[in-house]
Hints:
Structural class: alpha+beta
Radius of gyration: 15 Å
Largest sheet: 7 strands, mixed
Strand order of the largest sheet: 1-2-3-4-5-7-6
Amino acid sequence: MGIMIRQAQAGDVRAVKSCAELAYQKYVHAIGRKPSPMVANFADLIRQGIVYVAIDTTGNIDGFIVFHPVDNSMHLANVAVLPASMGMGIGKALIQYCENSARNQGLARIDLYTNIKMLDNLNIYPHLGYQEVDSRKEDNFHRVFFQKLL
């Protein structure tokens, strides 16, 4: 059975915020403060229609992704999976959903960044075909930028 992904709805705000808190909590100490995905305004992002959730067979949210087009690329802003649901292919499915959406919109690439302290991400993205294109300080975070041509 595949992973079900749908556009987030207003009633999903609490579950999405909780997922972000749980998924990113392990990085707070290393970064020295909450990473930006933990403090995002999810109600506003959901209203904008740019949040998609992965749901299990009972309708519970196991993870989410935030993405939107910028110029000729899709900006993948945030992807998170509940720690209890890690290792089940949910994150990969969400990223593939983003990539397919970009292709369907005729966009040439996916752009994203992650914090240099998020070592899991630094390993996962190259495995999924993303190339590191930059590394710099921005908004008081040290970010590593990745890109995948479609």
